[in-house]
């Protein structure tokens, strides 16, 4: 096996060509910024991978929205979720009794937009401003955990691939934690 070729020392161009004061011949060139990412530090977890290349979720092989089946999949998720919510003594009273269908459409529209689908949600509702829109509701840790329980049950019915499932779940979990606006019981 031959030794890997040594990287040429990278003296600044000004030194090499414009007659600047070159480093003394016996002094090795100062280390330059490596061209490859620093190796992982043992014991330190790697930075989380970003699976979406842009806010619109574009990927060479289709965005996440398309990959998991488009609107039909999000609507199945949300309908199943609301079936659970409707039975929940804490959450159900928060939702408009006579407009569950509207709530289903709003959450479906938001999720499909977030994951790279049509932007109908914002066209109809404006900027999501989700924390602000949740302020009228008492979203304490109990409500959050109930919301997540129903979402988890709904997600399990979709039978996505493990990676798709954990991608979606990771987001929903973080979003639900961010929505908590009171710690009062
Ligand atoms: C943490 C527990 C949560 C509770 C208790 C909660 C509760 C509610 C309630 C009561 C509404 C009003 C229903 C309606 O008329 O649309 C609502 C709306 C909505 N929620 Fe949540 N929510 C929670 C978390 C989340 C999360 C994590 C998301 C996003 C991933 C989300 C997205 C939405 C959206 C998009 C709407 C409709 C906003 C609009 O356009 O008016 N919610 N939520």
Detailed description of the structure:
The chain has 185 residues and is mostly helical. The chain has a domain at 64-179: Orthogonal Bundle (Globin-like). Helices cover 47% and strands 0% of the residues. The protein is built from eight helices and no strands. The chain has helices spanning 13-17, 64-67, 71-86, 100-114, 120-125, 130-134, 141-158, 162-179. The N and C termini lie far apart (68 Å). The model is unreliable at 1-27 and 49-56 (pLDDT under 50). The protein binds protoporphyrin IX containing FE.
Please outline what is shown here.
With 185 residues, this protein is mostly helical.
The hetero molecules present are: protoporphyrin IX containing FE
Look at the structure and name the CATH superfamily of the domain at 64-179: Globins
N to C succession of SSEs? HHHHHHHH
Largest sheet: none
Structural class by SSE content:
mainly alpha
Number of strands: 0
Helix amount, in percent? Answer: 40-55%
